[in-house]
UniProtKB/TrEMBL annotation:
Stretches assigned to the CMP/dCMP-type deaminase domain: 24-146
GO biological process, one term: riboflavin biosynthetic process
Record's protein name: Riboflavin biosynthesis protein RibD
Enzyme Commission code: 1.1.1.193, 3.5.4.26
Keywords from the named record: Hydrolase, Metal-binding, Multifunctional enzyme, NADP, Oxidoreductase, Riboflavin biosynthesis, Zinc
Family: In the C-terminal section; belongs to the HTP reductase family.
Role summary: Converts 2,5-diamino-6-(ribosylamino)-4(3h)-pyrimidinone 5'-phosphate into 5-amino-6-(ribosylamino)-2,4(1h,3h)-pyrimidinedione 5'-phosphate.
Pathways per UniProt: Cofactor biosynthesis; riboflavin biosynthesis; 5-amino-6-(D-ribitylamino)uracil from GTP: step 3/4; Cofactor biosynthesis; riboflavin biosynthesis; 5-amino-6-(D-ribitylamino)uracil from GTP: step 2/4
GO MF term list: 5-amino-6-(5-phosphoribosylamino)uracil reductase activity; diaminohydroxyphosphoribosylaminopyrimidine deaminase activity; NADP binding; zinc ion binding
Name of the coding gene: ribD
Keyword Hydrolase in record: yes
Keyword check for NAD: no
Cofactors required: Zn(2+)
Gene3D superfamilies to which the protein is assigned, alphabetical: Cytidine Deaminase, domain 2, Dihydrofolate Reductase, subunit A
Amino acid sequence: MPIPSRSELDLLVADIIAASQFNAADSLHMQRAIALAEKGRFTTAPNPNVGCVIVKAGKVIGDGFHLRAGEPHAEIHALNAAGAQTHGATCYVTLEPCSHYGRTPPCAAALVKANVNEVVIAMVDPNPKVAGKGIAILVAAGIKVRIGLLAAQAHALNPGFILRMQKQRPFVRLKMAASLDGRTALKNGESKWITGSAARSDVQVYRAQASAILSTASTVIMDDASLNVRYSELGASQRDYPALYNESNSQLNSLSDRETLQKQVRQPIRVVLDNHCRLDAHVESSSSALKLFSLPGEIILVNGAKESIDGKGEQRSADALRDNESVSRIEIKQDRHHNIDLNQLMSALAQQDINELWVEAGATLAGALLENKLVDEIIIYLAPKLMGDSARGLAVLSELTEMAQVPKFSFTDITQVGDDLRITAKPEY
């Protein structure tokens, strides 16, 4: 088929959305697909979470979800489960079927080959370069397409993937722990532990869902922070982990063994802002070793580009990193305050296929991210404690002289976690 132009694709999609109607049965099947998609949230990055349900004569004949990049997509798992029954069936999928050959063949073509009668899609592919192309393949083959069922819920499955496709930066969640009076550490820097064990277990679940964890050299050195997912601390939160696909028998199995969990669920990339190459001495040194470098998983050290032009900075990093394959370095230009340019950093992380970025750092980085309008969601664990006005605050912000300048947020969730409150809010930029 001839390749439609972008304007033709946009018009095709708009016309289908305008004409699409759904009933209660449609909603139930798409809800099942969305629930399936959520099972991949710890493993699919950098790919999106996608679920698929295939129905014939009102009966589900196959379903599946995408588990890991490079492995079959949700539609393929569902088609395999349905077998020879797919002729004339209806397929419900949370994201537009792919139209291109990557590490796996296009799902749109597989649906055509399976002779399905109709495809119901929750949302269009967010990549503007490919959006609508999978839909065009289906329409050209005479398959009926409806679009827009439970679109908001489908969007919520992949905020990072969508933002990376549309704005070339990851979705940023800023996590902080504070006392009732908004303090994150005592004046001397001590902060262990403001919150209780239940809150710390909850943090591990968020870490496990992230593509990467961002912190600073100061935090790593001061706290000897590991910035990894600590499976021993998952506790009751382990029930949130997904059923994983067992390829040997094509069934979805509940995962209970923690060792297996460690093997199956990836560690997020650890990204550390090290503007002045302070961590170089710790990479290979046994006498000053940090936990960060003793644990498995990829580490990216982010240096200020200015440091590399004096000759010393670049050579020190090259020597320190040469024999450590898990540690890499990127250089980001500095802003007018001689700090790492955070907007350029976000672009660089998007180029590394990082969808969701979990930030755990001090008040300086928190304030800088907020002032650059780079925080998409803020999560504060609030402990029932008072630490006093000499203790350290949540975020370092430029001096404000009017209440109209004060950053505003809207609460999206308030949940008690153990003795603490978890407050989730979105900035109103």
